Amino acid sequence: MAYLVLIGTRKGLFTATSDDREAWVLKGPHGLDADGYTAVSEIFATAADPATGQILVAADSPHFGPSVWRSDDLGATWHEPNAAPMSFPQGLPYRPLDYSETAGIDQPESDKTNTVKRVWQLAFGPQEGRVWAGVEPTSLWRSDDGGRTFAFNQALWDHPQHTTWASGGAGPAVHTIVTDAEDPAHVMIAMSSGGIYETRDDGDSWQGVTKGITVDYGPDPEPESGHCIHKVARTVDGTWIAQSHGPVWRTEEPASGWTNVSATLPSDFGFAVVAHPTEPGTAMVWPVQAAMDRFPPDKRIAAWRTGDNGDTWSAWGTGLPTDPYFGNVMRDGACTDGAPDPGWYFGTRCGDVWAAADADGRWHQVAAHLPDVLCVRAIAIP
Fold it and tell me: Domain of life, per the record (predicted)?
């Protein structure tokens, strides 16, 4: 079995391949187009479908803006749509992109047009050809042709709670999409300073599901919406684990409420959370100091694992640096590869990427000194 890792950075897409998840061959940055412009693009989202070998990459070019590139042969060749894959409907009421407008700073009327600024998340659905995309400004899009074209989800945009959605520290965006293989019409999304929402009718309607999640950054400690959620994952036994701007939370039924499960973590702040693909109750997080420096606790990089849906957590794996380390893991900077003995992967803002087989528990360096790592995705190739 071979393994492919997609590494999205501030300056392009890198890939790494291995036969044993210990020794890696790194390539990149990849110029997806003939002129190589995408080699310097910010890559905020990638997705890989092991069933078909299809790869999608959201590239934010400083010259041409955002686009979604597709490879049908595991990255050997790349294709870009002939036209922009996403475009807001004409006549849609304008929404501010950042705090400058909501703070009263005047913007020219000519600039007040809803424009896709960045694609933050790509997720394959269980339906053939289905791809969901989370976008900035806060919006959701759906493709039924494998990511070639996307349709705007009006129901989420029109949700009555949208007035409580802020931009967060990085921008107003849908940054997390979790699909459900057992119920294709069920999708969970999360957004910065927006909350968690789910649909059970394939996006025709959306319900906020943040009951019980408390905040310490607003006047209401338990608001109905507007929570700053960093990432959400679902364990194989159906338990949801959410890393917020503060504690880690757990629920078996999101609409019924969430429970704080951060008691045994070195910090309840963080960005990434990843669920084990086959082992019930098992997930991993990468704690970050809540202070604005955003360094790992005690300046030591570590992955923390639970096997009981967050009741207890412990540092997992050997082989990581023991000297002071100053790069944290971003919300999409970690994943598994879905293999029978799954591999865990994470990348840091110091440009390092690490991999560990679940049964072995030893971290091996995939790459070092890359640009700021924004997202990491991996698949096992039979």
Answer: Bacteria
